[in-house]
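ARCHIVE RECORD
Type: protein–small molecule complex
Small molecule: D-mannonic acid
Source of inputs: curated submission
Record status: active
Notes field left blank by submitter.
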Amino acid sequence: MKHLSLATLSDVKAEKPAYDPTTLALGVVHFGPGAFHRAHQAAYLDALAVTDPRWGICGVSLHSTGVRDALTPQNGLYTLATLDEEIGYRIIASIREVLVGPENPEAVFERLMGCGIVTSTVTEKGYCLHADGALDFGHGDIVHDLANPQAPKSFIGYVVEGLRRRREAGLAPFVLIPCDNLPNNGRRLKGAVVAFAARFDAGFADWIETGLACPCTMVDSITPATDDALRTRVADAIGVQDAWPIQREAFTQWVIEDHIHDGGPDWTSVGVTLTDNVPAYERAKLRLLNGPHSTLAYAGLHKGYETVSEAMNDPELSGLVRDLMLKDVVPLLETPKGMDLPGYCEAILKRFRNPAIRHLLSQIAWDGSQKLPIRILSSLQEALARGNDISRLAVPLAAWMRFVRKKAATGEAMTDPLAGELIALGKGLSDSRTDVAVFLALRAVFPENLAGNAVFVNAVEAAYERLLAAEDVVA
Ligand code: CS2
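STRUCTURE (tokenized, with ligand):
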């Protein structure tokens, strides 16, 4: 079978780009061209390319060579399979180049000089922030980048050195658009960039503070990792082989704060929502989609399920997340303009049930130490302050603790920046209520005010005991 590339595009049985990909300028530099980026922002920019050729993408991988190695022989083309009641296959051509940062930082800086927009999907941990949202100057990559600004390891290091060179050359800053599931992602990122720059030169930090547009965003589309089943399915459908197709649900949403630059893309023409109230959208999404997702992940794995839709078929679990959303979280939220929060919850529950998608709970369970504070503790703190019942919100925390325990006992790999610490801690547990205190001592996850709150501690201990009892029944 032939392989996907510009040369074989005419043989492909899929929706094809309605523009000539070779004419796109590299107007966007994107850090972290993983599955989510290729499912989401790259698809929007692919639609935009039909009318505006300025926004082709240069993807920059900070660690692995995999995306570059898969996409370069395919001239950047890949298949986006949308899995719902109907299955769609579309060839995306907006990624025109993929660079691997550590191989050639100068090539990345060159692109940063020539682009108009920088976007990122580097995950929560890629921002190198403390739990309070400020840049972590003790983070190994940040320490490295302050000493070696010309060969950075972190996304922050690249952005700051790219801005420094632009200032030196008399250019304006690029527009920086973070696309990760972080509250106030634009504010946090800009704060981190300014703080890093201030270590070099206060005037430079002021220049960034005044001139850098870094809007907050909300991004949404459920994107399970690529597997061999998808590769086979895509090859059968489109008639050529694609080394790295991407799958997602049909639903997709991108909300960007509307103070972005003149002369930029016509975002709304491709379905992006521009608003002055991103925080309301982003809080709703983080707490009503990502929070329940993490709840299903840990509670579902605890019950032996593999995928989100399987977990949703368990009435106890689907009832838990539904109540958590509607009874615990919705009352805490401001309703974004034109949105109906209970309707939003029902739509999310339907998306979780999507039978066309095999979204692995183990994928969502990655990086729990980073995700739980944002997704669950945020709601829980507010619920506590109002004197609301927090027993359901305690369940994902207790289930995560059992998840860590299991990883420590089985020796299975755990993806989490705190993995070493968590595994060590998980080995010393006694499988009793007292385990909870061991976890609550993790200051990177549980702030002092919460860990010392008796109502909170009791709720997590009670949830933990219930999970232990369920394990006894299974055993
Ligand atoms: C998920 C998200 O893996 C996870 O943690 O909760 O990737 C989720 O699928 C997306 O945010 C949906 O937009």
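CURATOR ANNOTATION: The two ends are 49 Å apart (CA to CA).
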